[in-house]
Amino acid sequence: MHFPKTTPVLIVGGGPVGLTLSNLLSRYGVDHLLVEARPGTSRHPKARGVSARSMEIFRRCGLEDAVRGAGLPASQVFFYRGRDLVDPDFVRSGVAHDAPGGDGNTPSPGLICSQDALEPVLLRRAREPAADRVRFSARLLSFTEDGEGVRAVLEDRADGEQHTVRAEWLVGCDGAAGTVRAGAGVGMDGPTGLGHFLSVRFEAPLGEVVADRASASYFLTPPGQGGFMAVDNNRHWIYQYPFDPDHRRGDEDLTDQEHLKNLVRAAAGIPDLEVSVRDTMVWRMDAQLASTYRSGRILLAGDAAHVIPPTGGHGMNTGIGDVDNLAWKLAAVTTGRATAALLDSYEAERHPVARQVIDLSTENARARAGYRIDDELLLTAAYCSTAVIPNPETPTRPPLDASSYHPSGDPGHRAPHTRLNGPSGISSTLDLIGPDFTLITAAVTPAWQQQADTATAADIPVTVRRLNSGRLREEHPGSFNRLCAMAATGAVLVRPDGHIAWRASSPSACPELLQALQRILTGARVPSSATGISH
Predict the structure, then answer these.
(1) 511: cis peptide before it, omega within 30°?
(2) What is the pLDDT of residue 484?
(3) What is the maximum span of the chain, computed from C-alpha positions, in angstroms?
(4) CA–CA dist 20, 125 (Å, integer)
(5) Cα separation of 51 and 376, whole Å?
C-alpha cells in the first residue's frame, strides 16, 4: 500500500467521527489521509441514534438522503417498556420528530441508523474525491511532534510494512483506548465502570412478535434484564445483557452459545425462540472527559476526547459535532487564512458541550428506563470563544439547554431554520450556508455586498445571501429576522459550521465585516464594548 510522504491533516480512526471529518475536509478542499486499523467498517451496530444536529451536518455534506435510506423508518422511532417482548401491559412512547423539511426547528430530524449501516454510507462518500485518502488495515504505531508538525509511523497490516508520514496536524478519532491521546500524554477524568454489558448480535424471527409494538429500543422492566435494540425490527437484533463482573455466577460462561441463546429467549419471553448468535461484544459504561482537546499539533475528537454513557444517544453525535466545529478551522489554518490560535477555540467551544452531555447522560444512566431522549438537545449548543464576537447585550448562557430548544440569532448560536421557497436544493435557511463564511441579510443593501467583496479580495471568501430576493423567498416572510432579533438592515455572519459568528444592525456597524473576520480568524480577544454589535 502506497502512503504519501506528507499530508496537511492525518486522521487516525475510521469510525463515524473520523469518516465525518474526512467528508467535511473534502468539502473544504483540504487534502488529508485517514488511517483505520480495522480491515473494514463496523460489523456491530454499536451507536444507533443520529440526532437532528448530526443530520443537519450530513445534509450539508449531501449525505442526508443516503443516511435516511440506511436507517429505520420514522414510524418505528418509539421506545418500548415491558417485562419482555410479549408483555401485554407494555408501554410505548415516541420522540417528537418533524417530517424532514417540516416547519419545526430543523429541516433534518434525527433517526435511528446503526453504526454498521452508517459507516459504509460515510465511507463511500469519503472515498469519492480521492479513494486513497482513506486507508483501512493501516494503523498508527507511533508519532512525534516538533512544533511544526507531526512525524507519524504507520503500518500496513496486510504486509507489515512501515511508512513514515509527515503531517501538519494529527487528529485522534480512534476512541478512548486509542493511540493518539495516550501518545500525546493527555489524561481522562471521570468515573469508569458505571455498568458492564454484554451485547449479543443475533438473528431471530421476531418481526411478527413486535408487529403491534415496533420500536427502536425495547427497555425491559423487572424482572426483565437489559433490553433489545432493533436493527431491522424483523430478524436482526441486539440484546444488551447487564452483568456485574465482580458478582457473576461462577458457572456463567458469556461465550457459550447455548447460554447466550437462553439469555435471549428469557429476555424475549419466548422459551422456544429460534436464535442464531452472530457475535458478541463486552463493554463498560464510563463517563470521562479529556483534560485538553489540543496538545500542540495534536487534536482529539469523539471518544478520544470524551466517553459518554449511551443513555440518551448523544455519544456519537457529540463526536460528530466536534469534527464539524474542527474541520472548518483546520481548513482556515492549513490554507493560511487563519493563525493556529483559531484552533484554541475548538476546545473552548466543544469541551463545555461534552461536559454537559456527560452529566446529562450520567443522570439518565442512574434513572435507567425512565430517562428522556431529546433529539434536539444538541441544537442548543451555543459557543463562547475568540471565534465568536459576542453581543454585549446578551448574557452568557450555558452551552446546552436540556429543557427545550429556543431559536436565537445571538452570536455563538446555531443559525435558526426557517422554510424557504427557492431553487432546487434550498428549502431551509440552513441550506444557504456554504463552505466559506456566509452573510445572511433580509434587505438588498449594496453596502453589505461591498463589504463582502472587500473581505473576499483579502482572501477571506464571504458569500452574501439575501432573503426574499430573486427566486428566494421565505415561506413566512420576516421569520428569520424575528428569530434572529435582527434589524431590517442588519445581517448575521454565519461560520461554515452553521453557528453565528457576528451580528450587526446595519452595514455601518463597527467593526466592519473584514475586521470582524480577521479577529475571528486570528483568535484575537475583543472587548465586548468594542464590537459595535447591537440589535
Answers:
(1) yes
(2) 92
(3) 78
(4) 10
(5) 7
Contact 411, 388 (CB under 8 A): yes
CATH number of the 72-108+195-285 domain: 3.30.9.10
CATH 3.50.50.60 fits 6-71+113-186+288-377, yes or no: yes
Q: Give the start-to-end residue ranges of the domains of the chain.
A: 6-71+113-186+288-377, 72-108+195-285, 383-530
| Mean pLDDT within 119-148 | 96
pTM: 0.93
The residue type at 402:
A
- 383-530 adopts what CATH topology? Glutaredoxin (3.40.30)
| Under 8 Å between Cβ of 502 and 411 | yes
Q: Which residues are CB-neighbours of 246 under 8 A, at least 6 positions away?
A: none
Strands 236-242 and 227-230: antiparallel
**Alpha-carbon span 419 to 427, nearest angstrom:** 6
What average pLDDT does the segment 499-521 reach?
90
Q: C-alpha cell of 29?
A: 478542499
**Cα-Cα-Cα-Cα dihedral of 339, 340, 344, 346, to 10°?**
90
User: Closest by alpha carbon to 387, among 200, 238, 288, 516?
Assistant: 516
pLDDT-based confidence at residue 375 (cuts at 50, 70, 90): confident
For range 237-257, the mean pLDDT: 81
Nearest of 112, 46, 108 to residue 76 by alpha carbon: 112
- Give the integer Cα–Cα distance in Å for 168 and 293: 17
Residue 200 β-bridge partners: 239, 280
Which class for 4: exposed (0-12), middle (13-18), buried (19 or more C-beta within 10 A)?
middle
Please check whether residue 190 is in contact with residue 307, taking contact to mean a CB–CB distance below 8 angstroms. Answer: yes
Count Cα atoms within 13 angstroms, Cβ side, for 454: 14
In this structure, the strands spanning 78-82 and 217-220 are parallel
Distance from C-alpha of 217 to C-alpha of 239, rounded to nearest angstrom: 10
What pLDDT sits at residue 97? 52
